[in-house]
Fold these 4 entries.
Entry 1:
Amino acid sequence: MLKVEPASSYPPEEGRYLRGNDYSPVAVAVILVYDQEKAPPDIENLVRVGLESGAALSGTIQTENIGIEKLIGNIVANPNIRYLVIFGPESPGHQTGDALLMLLENGVDERKRIIGAKALTPYLFNLPMEFIARFRRQVRLINLLDEGDPDLLRRAVWSCYQEEPTSLQNCTLFDPGAYPEGPLSGRLTWRVTRPQSEPKDEAERRQRERLRDLIARAKRATEKKRERERP
């Protein structure tokens, strides 16, 4: 079974995760519905269960935009990761689990909005399209949303690195080996750190441009008036 070295910078993005076996075929993302500082011990325990069961990376994910961007950046830097387990209760605000499901199913539109996502701001502005496309080809999602049993998480991770096909709920899982292309490396460039402030469609973008133009013209008119009034 082919395994490869991850990118030298792997994992390139910082976050609330633990690093395990670089040659494991699975990463674990536990949905976080609390502020990071207020996360209950049960959530931290699930992260450790994922790691101790054999995951390459195991951590929490909170947002449907920057959180997903960081997750993708880390996964495409390691071609050995072929599965992503999403676990824990869905976030009623961010709808992060749904956004991941829709991303793998539908991709993004020309503005990098996740097609079909229920979240308010499921935009991946900071990711190259190459990273998004590669993530969708490389990874298969194991949907365990709204599950909280540590034993189920252990079983899910274990199933992913078996050589023989293994059943888990409605899935058949096994380790297919590394994705047959090299790692995508390099840290993300954070052009947009407040996706919720970005225009949501072309009409809103044009409206903002018109407003900026009006403000600029008003400023120029004020400056000219002041120049005329100077003694």
Entry 2:
Amino acid sequence: MTARVAVLGGTGKTGRAVAAAVRARGAEAVPLGRAAWIDLAGALAGCDAAYVIAPNMHPDEAAYAEAVATAARSSGVVRLVHHSVASPYVPAMPHHLGKARAEDVVRRSGLAWTILQPGAYVQNFARRSDITLAYRAAAPFGFADLSDVAEVAARVLLEDGHHGATYELASFRATVAELAAALGSTVREVTPEAWARGGGAGLEPRVRDWLLRMFAYYDRHGLPVGTLPMRALLERPPRSLATLLGDGAG
């Protein structure tokens, strides 16, 4: 019987990539967007597993995860994979803490769970001639390639042996300055105050505040992420910066 996998948040870039990777492994992917929440248990009916991607900067990701877990249990889903973030328990970043709380919900769900914690997507910076940062460009990061993350997601959704596992994921390590130089992009550093008056001016105040806190943390510490878990799960080298540049960085 062909496995059936629901992808919550399936209309976004991550959801589309995960759904494509699931199909590439011969399974059926069921992308679910906002409309599915009218009857989430019904939308999940017949699915063996669910991949959970909360909306970006969700105000209460724990409640979101609880709703999905409840619907999954009632509809017979047995495997739940939660898309979290690298270093979720960082008190200085509220949206990371939200993911840490959601992870706690998933771990107590009674389902066969796995948690993925990807670093910043390299695709967030690709194909941009000018990159504006409200933190120092020399901060260290572990960048995750979206297709690598999607391939790992498909594996843990469809293979046994990942129940109870938490995997931090990065394809390569670099600074934004190094990434921009390789891409031929120009980096412009601005103060957080200037960003708040410019690019952040139209955002909801809560989201703007959370992003400013994130920038402050990045400025001090970056977001380093190890690459060994990605390599082990893929059973091949993750995509390197040179590889990404060679095919247009996604």
Entry 3:
Amino acid sequence: MYFWSLGPEFVLRLGRRRKYYDAFQPYEPPGVGVTRLYSESRDYLVGPMLEWRFSPHWSVEADGIYRKLHLTEAFVEPNGLLNSVSPSPVITWEFPVLAKYRFNLPRLKPFAEAGPSFRTAGNLNGANPSHLGVTGGLGVEFHAAGLAFAPAVRYTRWATDTGSPFITARSKEDQIELLIGVSRASSVNVHLFGRHVAIGAVLGTSLNERTPAQSFSYLASNGPVTIMSTPDRSFSAGPALEFLLPRRFSVEADAIYVPLRSTTIATVNGIQSGGFGSGITTWEFPVLAKYTFRAGTIAPFAEAGPSFRLPTTGLSTHGFTAGLGAQVPVKVLKFQPAVRYTRWAQNAFGAPIARPDQVEVMVGFLL
């Protein structure tokens, strides 16, 4: 039985009541006469949900959740009192894409869910919330008045925010929330996409560094100074859509979140300072023609096609991708591990340094 479940999702965040505690960590440098960044109120979440149930037990849910982070900026007087308190809210949208498994009991249907979460932010006010996380949750579904109610507790682990700790507020990486989903299932008992389209997600990491290490030195009044920047290992993830064609051909289109991160350490007269992270966010969109060599438990395939990238501070916006992999069916899922090579066009002058050649290990999870 295949059907869509569409409805709003109302969310209330759970946590201890503490005056200066919310999505943002308190930030207060040592000393007096400084600026403090903190959160002093809870936030509410609300947004639409879309769920595709493809068996009595399994489904995939995608949400678009609006959330305002209540960042506040204030000046700390020498006596410790706050002055010039200025609310500086940060607007975010969260997009969890979760695989769900229901335990079918007579009246209640407990469920477990897990998957990647994506986040966009605006009105930053000196903050830079990370864009990628992993979410897991437990809940129970029951029906009343023709509606499905699904309260759940979710835990999300967000990636660390990028940017110098001296100029930006840091959002808390660990978030626990109570969500109440309200939906009404479609009465259409069909596979909406038909049997020739598979949806899912891709996860991966780069085998070579996305950005090269950089180092430069100069002589200052207090001694020699060396600035060294080393790339950080990062993961990529995003939704995937595959169109199945005759004679073992198919076309796959992905939207992949790819962070370019590095850690910078300054050495002054032989003494190292604490390193701080920096980076930029990119989105890549490969569109790949695929050929599966044979059907069976393990089916090798080859793929190739153009890749596109959202314009980001002078980085090239197009390239070419090719890969080799294999498809392994496990019950209702198709696992597709693959090694991909991408050659990007030349970046504009003055753009962030990024390697034109990328070799990645990607794993697709398709339904």
Entry 4:
Amino acid sequence: MNKFRGYRCSICNLEYSPGEVKYTCPRDGGNLDVVLDYESILQSIKSSNFQPGKGENSLWRYLPLLPVGDPGGEGTPLRAAGWTPTFASPRLCKETGLSHLWIKDESRNPTASFKDRASAIIISRARDIGAEVVVTASTGNAGAALAGMAAAVGQKAVIFAPRTAPPAKIAQLLIFGARVLLVDGNYDQAFDLSIQAAEEFGWYCRNTGYNPFTIEGKKTAAFEIWEWYLITARDSDFSNLKVFVSVGDGNIISGIHKGFKELQSLGWITNLPEIFGVQAEGSAAIANAFFANSERIIPVSANTLADSISVDLPRDGVRAVRAAHQSGGDFLLVSDHEILEAIASLGKAGIFAEPAGAASYAGMVKAVRNGKIMPEDPVIVINTGSGLKDVKAAMQAVEEAPIIEPTLEAVKKIIE
């Protein structure tokens, strides 16, 4: 079965065959949506195929819904991407006043972030087309994900990262054996340079909001939420569900939206959940467009401690705006202070989130406060990455531990 039909431009709707284009629309530079043959898919599988105990406990359980071949790599971290846990927290419910609140913890991925989903699919695509080297620009997580997934199957990887990226993220890149080039500039400059290098050396470019296959990996989170919600909430009306996700370049929220739209196209759900995008106040280009009821993304000079969502010019802004509009969701802005508070709140529930991951929770708290969601609404918040990625930021969210003398009297003094 050839389920991969081709591409459709998200701006002009022009369609291309699989071998006709590679990255973006030649006509207007718009992001390309991968188009699947849903009729062929429905002839080979049913929604009942996806049940607990059936298939891999990873995103590869959805291979029939993905435009790539089986990449192999059995027993390696490549086969462990996705299928992340969703946690309930009575403490967070009490803190927020919500009756039904869950956290989907993407820090449990092999390289500890949501970006493993996209990188796993990119590696599979690279193997399908015989690419020798895969390159990407990253503030850390996407690069770490690519480096880790590539290392798992012996694929060569080159990463361009801003020199200001958190040291823990740079350490991951180096440990995984990628060729790392630190750019004396910001993410957007690293992005442009990586594309130039890909064109010059014939490398396959993974860049988010540029390569149409990244969104194919990210949509698998929607598939997992679908399976989980049917079982946990025993509810097939997804219009009741509110999904909160942090937004930088816009590719994650776009991917989640695409995943739910595909489930709808397959007839497996009737309504989409409401999707809420959360941006840092210092990196609000997509939210600004949403509030203006526009699809024109105007660059900003990004300044936020949440490095993973700090972007001057989001590369997938149009589809991100549509994700909130078309699902009946919204956008929210949060300050760095609110992000730090969210890190502390999630930590007390046993979840260690990096700033970008905690931003979604901060946005949810603001939505409750502003009456955008009601106490009885079922809510899922996605933590996109581990706090171990940025320990410096995490330490700003808590009080320093006291240093004491090694005596019981010193302990009593502190405790009392």
